[in-house]
Each structure stands twice: as C-alpha cells, then as structure tokens.
Amino acid sequence: MDIDASQVQVGEQSAYLARPVGVTAGPGMLLLPMITGIGEQLRAWADELAGRGTTALVWDPFKGRSTDNSTRDELGDLLGGLDDDTALTEQVALLDHLLGELGCTKVGTVGWCLGGRFALLLGARDHRLTNVVAFHPTVPSELRPNHSYDAIADSINITAPVLIAYPGADAAVPVADFEALQTALQSRDTGATITQFYPGAAHGYTDRSRQSDPVNADAYRLSWPQALAFIDATTA
After folding, report:
1. Which Gene3D superfamilies is this protein grouped with (predicted)?
2. Torsion over CA of 224, 225, 227 and 231, rounded to 10 degrees?
3. Which residues lie closer than 8 Å to 208 by C-beta, 6 or more apart?
4. What is each CA distance from 184 to 57, 84, 178, 181, in whole angstroms?
C-alpha cells in the first residue's frame, strides 16, 4: 500500500505522520519513541504501519533531536529533563488529532523503553485508547527524579487490552518490577493482558543497534509480528 509520510505540526508541537494514500478514516496508532527520538527506525515502524493500512503519528520527545542528529549521550541528557505532565499533555493532543482531524475510528498506542512507560501512563488516563503496547517499558519501581507518576501502580486504571514485551536480562527494570507490573495488569476488571518474556534479551532489544546479539535479534523477530497482529485485532 502506498503511503504519505512527512513532519507535521500539531498545535505547537512537531510530529511525524505516516498514512495510507487515499485513506481518510480507519485505524490509527500513536507511537511513543525510545531514546532514539524520531530517528530512522521509528520512522520505519510508522511507515510499516501505514503500509498495512494504519495511520501512524509519532510523538517527538526531544523537539527535533534524534539519533539522526545527536549522540545517545546527548539524548540521554535530554531524557532527564522530560516532565511527565508536559509529555502526557502533548500525547493527548496527538491522540485528539488522530481521532479528530485525521479521522481515525479507533486508535491505540505503542511505545518503546521510555515510550513504553508513557504508553502505560497514557492508557491509564485516556480510555479512548483501544490498545496499549509496551516494548521493554522503563518502569523501575524506584522512580527517577523527573518521574511524577508510578507506571506500575497506575496501570491498574488501563481499560484497553495491553501487550507487554519484557526482556529477561533487562538491566533497567528488575524482573521483580516486571512481575509487579504483570500482577497489576492482571488485577484489572477489564482489558486483556498479554505478556511476553524473552530470557536473556536486553533492555531495548528492539533497537537495531542491539540486534548484533542474536538473543536480542531473535526476541525482536518473535515479538514484532505478534504486536502487529495485536494492533490489527484491537483496531479493526
């Protein structure tokens, strides 16, 4: 399927939009990046979704900075300055845009690392979402200085189906914290919980830069197609 892709302006923020040519309605996904920002890989994921018939809009956490033009150390410094309330306000505005001007009928969200955490936080607050997908979400039980909210505790408020992919060798999120997240999600009265556990895979295993390790590459080959099928099933 042919797609249109470009940087767009949504209110005061910039975002990356990929959508099928000629489609004025249909499913949508809000993509929440990892430390790479809207780098080449995030754009490729958005383009892939658009090629499957899903409008994809990508939040820009670092305001034009990404692995295209910055080092990971520089982006890491910017990460420490992200404010939860500001980020969530921006994400809600993008969700409004998907459901409003872009005409999407059902919209979910998918995030990686820091974006996986925000996918959970957004899902807990905005029940318009039809799914929440979180790859190796950065949700340590000990909150970081710039974190205002506990994604593990807040996840009980998500009403949409959730898919979580967790790497067993995640140095950023201990297994006990993943188990606490899984327990919280499974305590909900509504919304299916699908959890995936990849022994030996590292935090950020979906990042191309980490897939020279065959364990990470194998985890990605298994988890990404399942996420696509989950997105299709929940936005159809």
Report:
1. alpha/beta hydrolase (3.40.50.1820)
2. 140
3. 41
4. 28, 21, 10, 5
